[in-house]
């Protein structure tokens, strides 16, 4: 696995400027990722609520970082206690995932973690 650098074609590069003119929040890099997600028909993961809003408006399936942690824990890829730790580290490092959603998920992870101990 690892990181794979994906190129954009000419039409996709041109579309970046169009989207940047319409939306003022996402950066050039953010928009390039939006375009890649749409063209590759993949799910986009971001903890940035404004960015996710733009993605949804453009018809791109987008979820937050807490959704990803929940998915990984539910699939037994990581332990629930690891999801809790990751969420706590996000908060400690100044990341601000959606509070209500993540607090609710964190409470559920704690219950599930206790049931599995």
Description:
This protein is mostly helical. It folds into 2 domains: 10-63, no CATH class; 65-116, no CATH class. It contains 6 helices and 2 strands. The chain has helices spanning 10-22, 28-39, 49-57, 65-74, 80-92, 99-116; strands at residues 44-45, 62-63. The protein has a two-stranded parallel ribbon. Strand 1, helix 3 (49-57) and strand 2 (62-63) form a beta-alpha-beta unit. Helix 4 packs parallel to helix 6 and helix 5 packs antiparallel against helix 6. The longest helix has 18 residues, at 99-116. The chain starts with 9 loop residues before the first helix and ends with a helix. The model has no long low-confidence stretch (mean pLDDT 88).
Strand-helix topology:
Layout: H1 10-22, H2 28-39, E1 44-45, H3 49-57, E2 62-63, H4 65-74, H5 80-92, H6 99-116
Number of DSSP helices? 6
What share of the residues does DSSP label as strand, in percent? under 5%
Number of domains: 2
Which geometry do the CA atoms define?
Answer: elongated
Could you tell me the number of beta strands?
A: 2
Radius of gyration, taken over Cα atoms and rounded to an integer in Å? 17 Å
Order of adjacent strands in the largest pleated sheet: 1-2
Segments where pLDDT lies below 50 for 5+ residues? Answer: none
Q: Roughly what is the average pLDDT, rounded to an integer? A: 88
Pattern of helices and strands: HHEHEHHH
Name the assembly state: single chain
Largest pleated sheet: 2 strands, parallel
| Share of helical residues | 55-70%
Q: Kindly, what is the distance between the CA atoms of the first and last residues, rounded to a whole number of angstroms? A: 31 Å
Helix/strand/pairing category:
mainly alpha
């Amino acid at each position: 696995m690892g990181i794979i650098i994906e190129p954009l074609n000419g039409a996709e590069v041109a579309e970046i400027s169009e989207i940047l003119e319409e939306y003022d929040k996402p950066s050039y890099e953010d928009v390039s990722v939006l375009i890649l997600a749409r063209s590759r028909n993949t799910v986009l993961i971001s903890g940035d609520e404004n960015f996710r809003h733009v993605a949804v408006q453009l018809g791109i399936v987008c979820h937050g970082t807490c959704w990803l942690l929940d998915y990984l824990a539910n699939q037994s890829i990581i332990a629930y206690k690891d999801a809790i730790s990751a969420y706590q580290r996000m908060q400690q490092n100044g990341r601000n995932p959606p509070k209500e959603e993540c607090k609710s998920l964190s409470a559920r992870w704690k219950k599930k973690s206790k049931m599995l101990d």
